[in-house]
Design goal:
Blueprint (H helix, E strand, L loop, with lengths): L1 H23 L11 H7 L7 H4 L5 H13 L6 H15 L3
Helix pairs in contact: 4-5
Bound molecules: heme C.
């Protein structure tokens, strides 16, 4: 009986762990393109990428946001900034 309880607890832990890893490794729907790698490496340093991909903004608004992130300390060069804004507007722009 004691062994059975231990086995059930062990099984529960395995199930919980595999479910949480399933949630966290879920691929974010980030379209291919120049800028994808930059977004993946620079834009999730302070928050998740869900903040980014749930927006639909104009080019001006994206410029504004990326500028703000840089002011807050995002390590992005001006060349990278151009690529990022283009990518964001193309894929997450206003329809
Ligand atoms: C230095 C840290 C940092 C980095 C790097 C960073 N952000 Fe942010 N970002 C923040 C903070 C702080 C907020 C505001 C708090 C929050 O919403 O979590 C924010 C919020 C946002 C928002 C929410 C909209 C809004 O008006 O607040 C968007 C969109 C966003 N970031 C996009 C980006 C993009 C795109 C990148 C990559 C180019 C990026 N962030 C990189 C710190 C950062």
């Amino acid at each position: 009986m004691f062994m059975l309880n231990k086995y059930i607890i062990f099984l529960c832990i395995i199930i919980i762990v595999s479910f949480t890893s399933l949630i966290y490794t879920k691929e974010l729907p980030l379209p291919e393109g120049e800028g994808k790698a930059l977004i993946l490496s620079k834009c999730n340093l302070c928050h998740g990428l869900d903040v980014v991909i749930n927006q639909r903004l104009s080019k001006l608004e994206w410029e504004d946001i990326v500028n703000r992130m840089i002011r807050w300390g995002a390590p992005i060069s001006s060349r990278e900034q151009e690529i990022i804004v283009e990518y964001l507007y193309k894929n997450f722009g206003q329809k």
